[in-house]
Backbone:
């Protein structure tokens, strides 16, 4: 029997764009669970209920699909972080609060994507995708810190180093929070800002180690 001109039980065929988006979604899940090396075109195709040639047709293979997934995650995270830093007139502490919250929000809402970024491009690898993204963020933070250091007559050349320290703290804390999810996102962000802000607020202009701690 036919209803509305279509056979009952027959699903609507996906367009090329819809199929591509479906494969990206499925591939994202598989890469998050398995990692790039352990993920396979066979599993991706099976979960998407398509044949392997369909995956190759759209992406040329596992590498092409992975590149699309990573590129989207990087764009999503970087856009969120840049948005948090866009107000040049905001107080530096407020910018730090917004950035920490934006980072944790991305993790909370894009768990699979963050797992892909940190699993296959760990922060410790300077050539990794995630590390490259953090370098971009650190450069933006450096600009803010340099202006504040200059305002208070501190050496502006230290801005680069302090920016790396701050961004590294947020990145590693985010990886830890991904697994525990405790305490809440707001509490973690507040604690990170508390440590970094009051540490920066009491900076010595020419810090040095105590004699007993020198190696």
Residues:
């Amino acid at each position: 029997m036919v209803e509305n001109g279509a056979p009952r039980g027959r699903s609507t065929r996906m367009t090329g764009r819809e199929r591509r988006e479906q494969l990206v979604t499925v591939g994202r899940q598989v890469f998050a669970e398995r990692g790039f090396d352990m993920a396979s075109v066979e599993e991706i195709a099976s979960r998407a209920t398509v044949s392997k040639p369909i995956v190759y047709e759209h992406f040329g293979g596992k590498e092409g699909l992975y590149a699309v997934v990573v590129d989207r995650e990087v764009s999503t995270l970087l856009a969120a972080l840049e948005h948090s830093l866009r107000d040049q007139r905001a107080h530096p502490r407020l910018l730090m609060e917004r950035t920490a919250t934006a980072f944790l929000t991305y993790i909370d809402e894009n768990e699979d994507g963050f797992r892909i970024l940190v699993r296959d491009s760990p922060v410790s690898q300077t050539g990794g995708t995630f590390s490259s993204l953090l370098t971009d963020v650190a450069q933006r933070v450096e600009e803010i810190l340099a202006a504040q250091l200059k305002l208070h007559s501190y050496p502006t050349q230290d801005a680069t180093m302090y920016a790396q320290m701050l961004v590294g703290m947020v990145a590693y804390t985010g990886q830890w929070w991904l697994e525990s999810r405790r305490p809440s996102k707001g509490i973690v962000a507040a604690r990170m800002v508390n440590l970094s802000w009051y540490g920066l607020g009491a900076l010595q202009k020419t810090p040095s180690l105590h004699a007993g701690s020198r190696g």
Summary: The chain has a mean pLDDT of 83. Residues 62-84 form the longest helix (23 residues).
